[in-house]
Design a protein that fits this description.
It contains five helices and no strands. The protein has about 100 residues and is an all-alpha fold. The chain has one domain.
Length: about 100
């Protein structure tokens, strides 16, 4: 129990988990877990959920750093030659 308490209440892990927990709660509300909701509420929850999904992609690509993930995506879009090179590397790793 102490391990669970330590993991849940460490500052870094808690900061990392909050957006994903918010997303899960928002999806449950959208699926009418607590009753019917208005169209405006549904729209606002959808914005929150999609923003969190984008953040999750950036977080994973940046290896636990959203800023690093954003930099990786911007570099991928800016440098067309490198995009082809990394595409070939990825395809060769997938094939083997």
């Amino acid at each position: 129990m102490e391990l669970l308490y330590g993991c849940l209440y460490q500052k870094s892990l808690h900061g990392d988990l909050c957006p994903w927990i918010d997303r899960c709660c928002g999806e449950n509300i959208q699926l009418r877990a607590f009753g019917a909701i208005s169209a405006q509420t549904n729209f606002l929850l959808e914005i929150m959920i999609e923003t969190t999904r984008i953040g999750l992609v950036l977080y994973v690509l940046g290896m636990a750093n959203i800023k690093s993930g954003f930099i990786r995506i911007s570099n991928l879009l800016k440098h067309k030659g490198e995009r082809r090179k990394y595409g070939r590397i990825a395809n060769s790793k997938i094939a083997s």
